[in-house]
Design goal:
alpha/beta, twelve-stranded mixed sheet, 19 helices, disordered C terminus, Carboxylic ester hydrolase, AB_hydrolase_fold
Length: 577
């Protein structure tokens, strides 16, 4: 496992240069190549590289705002994506394509493709949050980049029994799937190789990719071949049923915020009425309900388990068939090379500073995971020692103005929500299974299936970029580093050096399926980084494994069905990690 902790940015600035942002477009120098698709012709723009534009070392061509499905307004609101008709349509789901300006079909052939899936808790975000022009322009090997928008919030995930009856579940995931298949069918016209497509996502984007890796298992040729999953995965979030009490309560709050009294309208009239409302009413209601579930985090408008597919436009495909952990245990997932990882302090941005007592700490987790038992809570408290009762606790130091339990809460939440799910899904992607420890019943077929599993790489981003919080590698802090976004990292030499290595690894993975250079010297122990490579190989400590095992063994609780999954003997299934 590679760690970036050896190279720190020592800037004293009190802001975080790495927070995701909406990219300011690089100045254009004029039109570029025109690409003819069945749906119409699109002319790109040239993003130049010059001494006056130090953000790009190589010129990049960009095609912006290309539609990949019909408008999601009017009659298509709260419905699965609909294919485009020939001809222009400005009000629709759209994408951007980025290609090196030096591209030559005769010299370069078809280029590897990377498709970026944005994050945002399934409630916010845009495809342009990651600078894909920079990602493509800084790549040593020529590659082609794509980013895109999909529906989020109540428009993308109106999770409820009524939405299930309407065929409106997981619309944002269906948009993503529609985009992947659009790329498969059209990317060759831009010079891309439809047989070498990598999905890359952060946070909710990584969760999404995890769901898709499980949804395509019955497809002979999924429209992607590698995956990069930053701070997320299929088991990193609760995945409830659409009629779970929490989803139903949140959807009811949304309807009331829209001015609809759910007790005074027939269920089959809810979505026709929602389609008639102004878009601003929908967005304001979605935002207000989301804000109510920030502390502790129980976000509304999330992906849910489906029993039926969307009602039109997607071939009745079911994207989430079961709890993701159950799907993993059955081995029902695509087997492709995966690059995944986490940041040290994933919970910094999500955890409330107002955590003073041990009871405060425990209440946060019982609110998020109601079925934790008294024994579970006792074990949780022991694994994360109370800094008030135990002065030797590693969680004693907190930033000024923060509650005495905050560092403890942040660490436990980071492990619960991001770090341990990433490690667990890495185990499954690399050929592991989830059978109980006392089960030795493995068929020859199962053994053969895991004889040659695809490679999986796990990274740990630990660059300290939050001096205002005592120096933290927060959730999504790697985003600008991965993109080699010089507008964000340029003033910070330590981060630039990390970016040279990290972006290089990501770009090599896209181009070749292997993030490592062709030749790499053996890395030293942690703390002795090889010159020129700001990373070391580290092993999890016994304490880290023990804390993650606590979460692994309770993932069926945290995933959302409010019960333990049972094996044949009636005992709770234990993690085999």
């Amino acid at each position: 496992m590679a760690s970036s902790r050896d190279q720190r940015d020592n800037s004293k600035e009190e802001h975080n240069p790495l927070r995701p942002k909406i990219i300011r477009p690089t100045p254009d120098s004029g039109p570029s190549a025109t690409v003819a698709l069945a749906q119409g012709q699109y002319t790109g723009v040239l993003l130049p590289a010059s001494p006056l534009n130090p953000l790009l070392p190589r010129a990049v061509e960009a095609w912006r705002g290309i539609p990949y499905a019909q408008t999601t307004g009017g009659r298509n609101r709260f419905r699965p994506p609909v294919p485009l008709d020939p001809g222009p349509d400005k009000d629709c789901l759209n994408l951007n394509v980025y290609r090196p300006a030096s591209y030559s079909p005769a010299r370069d052939g078809a280029l590897p493709v990377v498709v970026y899936v944005h994050g945002g808790a399934f409630n916010a975000g845009l495809g342009t949050e990651r600078d894909m022009a920079s990602f493509v322009g800084w790549s040593e090997a020529p590659i082609l980049g794509v980013n895109f928008n999909y529906r989020v919030g109540a428009l993308g995930f109106p999770s409820s029994g009524a939405a299930e009856a309407e065929g409106a579940l997981n619309l944002g995931l269906r948009d993503q799937r529609f985009l992947f298949e659009w790329v498969r069918d059209n990317i060759g016209e831009f010079g891309g190789d439809r047989g070498r497509v990598t999905l890359m996502g952060v946070s909710a984007g990584a969760h999404s990719i995890g769901y898709h890796l499980q949804s395509y298992t019955t497809t002979d040729s999924p429209p992607f071949h590698r995956a990069i999953m930053e701070s997320g995965g299929a088991t990193a979030r609760a995945t409830l049923s659409p009629n779970h009490p929490r989803t139903e309560a949140q959807f009811r709050e949304f309807l009331i915020a829209c001015g609809i009294q759910p007790d005074q309208i027939a269920a089959d009239r809810i979505f026709p009425l929602l389609r008639s409302l102004p878009l601003g009413t929908i967005l304001a209601a979605s935002t207000s309900v989301f804000a109510r579930y920030q502390d502790p985090i129980r976000w509304p408008f999330q992906p849910v388990i489906e029993r039926t597919g969307g009602q039109r436009g997607d071939g009745e495909v079911v994207i989430i068939r079961d709890l993701p952990i159950s799907t993993f245990r059955r081995g029902d997932h695509v087997r492709i090379p995966v690059l995944a990882g986490f940041n040290t302090n994933e919970g910094t941005v999500f955890t409330s500073p107002a955590v003073e007592t041990n009871d405060d700490f425990l209440r946060k987790f019982t609110a998020m995971i109601p079925d934790l038992t008294a024994a579970d809570l006792q074990r949780l408290a022991a694994l994360y020692p109370d800094p008030v009762a135990d002065p030797s606790s590693p969680y004693a130091r907190v930033p000024p103005g923060y509650g005495r339990q905050w560092a403890r809460y942040e660490a436990a939440y980071s492990h619960y929500a991001y770090v341990c799910p990433v490690l667990q899904t890495g185990h499954f992607y690399s050929g592991g299974n989830g059978n109980s420890d006392n089960s030795d019943d493995h068929s020859d077929e199962d053994e053969d299936e895991d004889d040659d599993p695809p490679p999986v790489w796990i990274y740990h981003f630990a660059a300290l970029a939050r001096p205002d919080l005592g120096g933290k590698a927060n959730h999504c802090d790697e985003a600008a580093v991965v993109a080699h976004d010089m507008a964000a990292i340029g003033p910070h030499p330590g981060l630039v050096r990390i970016s040279d290595a990290m972006h290089g690894a990501w770009a090599r993975f896209v181009a070749t399926g292997d993030p490592n250079p062709a030749h790499i010297d053996e890395l030293g122990a942690a703390g002795r980084g090889t010159p020129g490579l700001p990373a070391t190989v580290v092993r999890l400590t016994d304490g880290e494994v023990e804390r993650c095992r606590f979460w692994w063994e309770r993932v069926d609780l945290s995933e959302g069905m409010g019960r333990r999954l049972l094996d044949g003997s009636g005992d709770a299934v234990r993690a085999r990690l």
